[in-house]
Amino acid sequence: MAVNDITIVDVGSGLMTQEWAVAAGVAILAGEPVQLNAESDNVVIELVTAEPVNTAGAICGIAASEDTATAAAAGVIQCYKPLPGMVYRCAAETAGNIGAGILYDTVAFDLTGTTWTINEDEGSDEDVHGLRILGFDANAGTVDFEFRAFVTHWGSVHTLTA
Description:
5-stranded antiparallel β-sheet, 2 domains, 5-stranded mixed barrel, mainly beta
């Protein structure tokens, strides 16, 4: 993956981090989206393409640093908590498609190769997708977005103990 694929544009109510456990052999870089590995688990993993959605692990935020795990030992990672009012920026999957028609759509991330993007092409689905598009920069090919509460660890419909 690439460092800082996803950045914070507006901290809203404040910027807070939380430390999470990472299993041995996991490699998460700063700027990558992170979710709980499973319900009743305090270990985080990187998201996969086409998430966040309402049936996947609860989002813990965006990695603020590289994790400390090694191939043989578990580690920790600091994540920016996905608090209300925070706005993030990420490249669009297809920069040529950026326009007013994508505003407020609910979508998911795409991970193609080593780069995280926002899949603005997939079509809005209020019942499933966990990202809401709030703005865009057509010249830069970027999309501003927020995490929807129902996919975060603080607002999730999942039963979580972390």
